[in-house]
Q: What sequence folds into this?
Protein backbone atom coordinates (compact mmCIF):
# COMPACT_ATOMS: atom_id res chain seq x y z
CA UNK A 1 0.00 0.00 0.00
CA UNK A 2 1.57 3.28 -1.06
CA UNK A 3 0.83 6.85 -0.07
CA UNK A 4 -1.17 8.47 2.68
CA UNK A 5 -4.29 8.82 0.51
CA UNK A 6 -4.51 5.03 0.07
CA UNK A 7 -4.31 4.55 3.84
CA UNK A 8 -7.00 7.15 4.49
CA UNK A 9 -9.29 5.41 1.98
CA UNK A 10 -8.61 2.04 3.59
CA UNK A 11 -9.52 3.30 7.06
CA UNK A 12 -12.59 5.16 5.82
CA UNK A 13 -13.87 1.95 4.18
CA UNK A 14 -13.29 -0.18 7.28
CA UNK A 15 -16.50 -1.27 9.02
CA UNK A 16 -15.01 -0.49 12.46
CA UNK A 17 -14.70 3.18 11.49
CA UNK A 18 -17.67 3.39 9.13
CA UNK A 19 -19.33 6.27 11.03
CA UNK A 20 -16.15 8.18 11.82
CA UNK A 21 -15.70 11.76 10.69
CA UNK A 22 -13.13 12.74 8.10
CA UNK A 23 -11.09 14.40 10.86
CA UNK A 24 -11.11 11.19 12.91
CA UNK A 25 -10.02 9.15 9.88
CA UNK A 26 -7.11 11.50 9.24
CA UNK A 27 -6.10 11.23 12.90
CA UNK A 28 -6.21 7.43 12.67
CA UNK A 29 -4.09 7.51 9.52
CA UNK A 30 -1.43 9.47 11.38
CA UNK A 31 -0.91 6.59 13.85
CA UNK A 32 -1.32 3.70 11.37
CA UNK A 33 1.50 1.74 9.74
CA UNK A 34 1.19 -0.21 6.44
CA UNK A 35 1.88 -3.95 6.73
CA UNK A 36 2.00 -7.03 4.50
CA UNK A 37 1.86 -10.77 5.23
CA UNK A 38 2.64 -13.69 2.93
CA UNK A 39 0.10 -16.52 2.62
CA UNK A 40 0.51 -18.94 5.52
CA UNK A 41 2.05 -16.36 7.88
CA UNK A 42 0.97 -16.62 11.51
CA UNK A 43 0.13 -13.03 12.45
CA UNK A 44 -0.66 -13.71 16.09
CA UNK A 45 -1.60 -16.66 18.29
CA UNK A 46 -4.09 -17.30 21.05
CA UNK A 47 -2.61 -16.03 24.32
CA UNK A 48 -0.36 -13.41 22.71
CA UNK A 49 -0.43 -9.85 24.00
CA UNK A 50 -2.97 -7.78 22.04
CA UNK A 51 -0.80 -4.78 21.28
CA UNK A 52 -2.16 -3.86 17.83
CA UNK A 53 -5.24 -4.10 15.64
CA UNK A 54 -5.31 -4.77 11.89
CA UNK A 55 -7.35 -3.24 9.10
CA UNK A 56 -7.27 -5.42 5.97
CA UNK A 57 -6.84 -3.75 2.59
CA UNK A 58 -6.54 -6.85 0.41
CA UNK A 59 -6.34 -10.62 0.90
CA UNK A 60 -7.90 -12.69 3.68
CA UNK A 61 -7.02 -13.61 7.27
CA UNK A 62 -8.37 -16.71 9.01
CA UNK A 63 -9.15 -16.74 12.74
CA UNK A 64 -9.08 -20.18 14.32
CA UNK A 65 -8.94 -22.08 17.60
CA UNK A 66 -7.13 -25.30 18.48
CA UNK A 67 -9.51 -27.88 19.98
CA UNK A 68 -8.63 -30.13 22.92
CA UNK A 69 -8.26 -33.00 20.45
CA UNK A 70 -5.63 -31.14 18.46
CA UNK A 71 -7.90 -30.13 15.59
CA UNK A 72 -8.28 -26.61 14.24
CA UNK A 73 -11.67 -24.89 14.27
CA UNK A 74 -12.10 -21.96 11.90
CA UNK A 75 -14.27 -19.31 13.55
CA UNK A 76 -14.05 -16.45 11.07
CA UNK A 77 -12.55 -15.30 7.78
CA UNK A 78 -11.76 -11.58 7.58
CA UNK A 79 -11.36 -9.94 4.17
CA UNK A 80 -10.80 -6.46 2.75
CA UNK A 81 -12.50 -3.76 4.80
CA UNK A 82 -12.52 -5.77 8.02
CA UNK A 83 -10.72 -5.01 11.27
CA UNK A 84 -9.48 -7.68 13.63
CA UNK A 85 -7.74 -7.73 16.97
CA UNK A 86 -9.66 -4.69 18.17
CA UNK A 87 -11.27 -6.47 21.13
CA UNK A 88 -7.97 -7.34 22.78
CA UNK A 89 -6.64 -3.87 22.08
CA UNK A 90 -9.67 -2.29 23.77
CA UNK A 91 -9.85 -4.51 26.87
CA UNK A 92 -6.11 -5.32 27.06
CA UNK A 93 -6.83 -9.04 27.29
CA UNK A 94 -4.72 -11.66 25.49
CA UNK A 95 -5.55 -12.79 21.96
CA UNK A 96 -8.52 -15.15 21.97
CA UNK A 97 -7.68 -16.90 18.67
CA UNK A 98 -4.94 -17.55 16.13
CA UNK A 99 -4.75 -15.31 13.05
CA UNK A 100 -3.19 -16.67 9.85
CA UNK A 101 -2.92 -15.06 6.41
CA UNK A 102 -4.95 -17.30 4.09
CA UNK A 103 -3.62 -15.44 1.06
CA UNK A 104 -1.03 -12.74 0.48
CA UNK A 105 -2.54 -9.94 2.55
CA UNK A 106 -1.91 -6.21 2.89
CA UNK A 107 -3.35 -3.67 5.26
CA UNK A 108 -2.42 -1.42 8.11
CA UNK A 109 -1.78 -1.88 11.83
CA UNK A 110 -2.58 0.51 14.68
CA UNK A 111 -0.67 0.10 17.94
CA UNK A 112 -2.64 -0.11 21.18
CA UNK A 113 -1.03 2.74 23.13
CA UNK A 114 -1.42 5.26 20.31
CA UNK A 115 -4.98 4.06 19.63
CA UNK A 116 -6.08 4.41 23.25
CA UNK A 117 -4.62 7.92 23.46
CA UNK A 118 -6.51 8.85 20.30
CA UNK A 119 -9.83 7.52 21.67
CA UNK A 120 -9.35 9.58 24.83
CA UNK A 121 -8.77 12.68 22.70
CA UNK A 122 -11.65 11.98 20.29
CA UNK A 123 -14.86 10.78 22.03
CA UNK A 124 -16.69 10.84 18.68
CA UNK A 125 -14.37 8.12 17.40
CA UNK A 126 -14.91 6.06 20.56
CA UNK A 127 -18.70 6.32 20.12
CA UNK A 128 -18.44 5.17 16.50
CA UNK A 129 -16.49 2.07 17.63
CA UNK A 130 -19.03 1.31 20.38
CA UNK A 131 -21.81 1.36 17.77
CA UNK A 132 -19.90 -1.03 15.54
CA UNK A 133 -19.15 -3.47 18.38
CA UNK A 134 -22.80 -3.43 19.43
CA UNK A 135 -23.76 -4.48 15.90
CA UNK A 136 -21.11 -7.21 16.03
CA UNK A 137 -22.63 -8.52 19.27
CA UNK A 138 -26.06 -8.65 17.65
CA UNK A 139 -24.57 -10.52 14.67
CA UNK A 140 -22.92 -13.02 17.02
CA UNK A 141 -26.25 -13.61 18.78
CA UNK A 142 -27.82 -14.21 15.37
CA UNK A 143 -25.15 -16.78 14.49
CA UNK A 144 -25.44 -18.62 17.81
CA UNK A 145 -29.20 -18.72 17.44
CA UNK A 146 -28.76 -20.19 13.96
CA UNK A 147 -26.51 -23.03 15.15
CA UNK A 148 -28.59 -23.84 18.21
CA UNK A 149 -32.14 -23.59 16.88
CA UNK A 150 -32.20 -24.01 13.11
CA UNK A 151 -31.84 -26.85 10.65
CA UNK A 152 -28.76 -26.81 8.42
CA UNK A 153 -30.62 -25.50 5.37
CA UNK A 154 -31.90 -22.55 7.44
CA UNK A 155 -28.43 -21.94 8.90
CA UNK A 156 -26.98 -21.95 5.40
CA UNK A 157 -29.65 -19.53 4.16
CA UNK A 158 -28.87 -17.21 7.07
CA UNK A 159 -25.15 -17.44 6.32
CA UNK A 160 -25.73 -16.56 2.67
CA UNK A 161 -27.97 -13.63 3.61
CA UNK A 162 -25.39 -12.31 6.08
CA UNK A 163 -22.67 -12.59 3.41
CA UNK A 164 -24.90 -10.78 0.89
CA UNK A 165 -25.45 -7.93 3.36
CA UNK A 166 -21.71 -7.61 3.82
CA UNK A 167 -21.28 -7.35 0.05
CA UNK A 168 -24.37 -5.32 -0.90
CA UNK A 169 -25.52 -3.57 2.30
CA UNK A 170 -28.65 -4.15 4.40
CA UNK A 171 -31.12 -3.12 1.68
CA UNK A 172 -30.87 -6.18 -0.58
CA UNK A 173 -32.46 -6.31 -4.04
CA UNK A 174 -34.87 -9.12 -4.93
CA UNK A 175 -32.00 -10.98 -6.62
CA UNK A 176 -28.30 -10.66 -5.88
CA UNK A 177 -25.07 -12.42 -6.76
CA UNK A 178 -22.60 -13.71 -4.18
CA UNK A 179 -19.07 -14.88 -4.96
CA UNK A 180 -17.96 -17.47 -2.43
CA UNK A 181 -14.34 -16.89 -1.42
CA UNK A 182 -14.54 -19.81 1.04
CA UNK A 183 -14.50 -23.49 0.14
CA UNK A 184 -17.25 -25.88 1.19
CA UNK A 185 -15.08 -27.31 3.97
CA UNK A 186 -14.55 -23.84 5.44
CA UNK A 187 -18.26 -22.96 5.27
CA UNK A 188 -19.16 -26.32 6.82
CA UNK A 189 -16.82 -25.60 9.76
CA UNK A 190 -18.44 -22.20 10.31
CA UNK A 191 -21.93 -23.75 10.31
CA UNK A 192 -21.00 -26.72 12.47
CA UNK A 193 -21.67 -29.34 9.78
CA UNK A 194 -19.79 -31.89 7.69
CA UNK A 195 -18.92 -31.12 4.09
CA UNK A 196 -21.30 -33.80 2.66
CA UNK A 197 -24.19 -32.40 4.73
CA UNK A 198 -23.38 -28.89 3.56
CA UNK A 199 -23.39 -30.05 -0.07
CA UNK A 200 -26.83 -31.61 0.46
CA UNK A 201 -28.07 -28.36 2.02
CA UNK A 202 -26.80 -26.40 -1.00
CA UNK A 203 -28.66 -28.81 -3.25
CA UNK A 204 -31.84 -28.33 -1.19
CA UNK A 205 -31.61 -24.55 -1.51
CA UNK A 206 -31.14 -24.92 -5.24
CA UNK A 207 -34.13 -27.27 -5.53
CA UNK A 208 -36.28 -24.74 -3.65
CA UNK A 209 -35.29 -21.94 -6.01
CA UNK A 210 -33.36 -19.97 -3.39
CA UNK A 211 -30.01 -20.16 -5.19
CA UNK A 212 -28.50 -21.12 -8.51
CA UNK A 213 -24.88 -22.26 -8.48
CA UNK A 214 -22.47 -21.03 -11.13
CA UNK A 215 -19.04 -22.29 -10.16
CA UNK A 216 -18.16 -20.53 -6.88
CA UNK A 217 -20.80 -17.87 -7.44
CA UNK A 218 -24.40 -18.01 -6.24
CA UNK A 219 -27.34 -16.28 -7.90
CA UNK A 220 -29.69 -15.70 -5.00
CA UNK A 221 -33.45 -15.24 -4.67
CA UNK A 222 -33.68 -13.07 -1.56
CA UNK A 223 -37.35 -13.76 -0.76
CA UNK A 224 -36.85 -17.53 -0.92
CA UNK A 225 -33.71 -17.31 1.22
CA UNK A 226 -35.59 -15.25 3.81
CA UNK A 227 -38.40 -17.81 3.91
CA UNK A 228 -35.96 -20.69 4.43
CA UNK A 229 -33.89 -18.74 6.96
CA UNK A 230 -37.00 -18.16 9.09
CA UNK A 231 -38.03 -21.85 9.14
CA UNK A 232 -37.34 -23.51 12.50
CA UNK A 233 -37.79 -27.09 11.37
CA UNK A 234 -40.95 -27.71 13.41
A:
Amino acid sequence: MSGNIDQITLLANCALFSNASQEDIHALSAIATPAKWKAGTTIFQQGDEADFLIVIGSGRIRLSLATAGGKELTIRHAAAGAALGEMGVLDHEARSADATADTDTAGTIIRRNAFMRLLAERPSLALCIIQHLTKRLRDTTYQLESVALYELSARLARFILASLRQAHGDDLPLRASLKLDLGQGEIAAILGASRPKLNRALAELEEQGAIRRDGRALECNIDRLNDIAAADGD
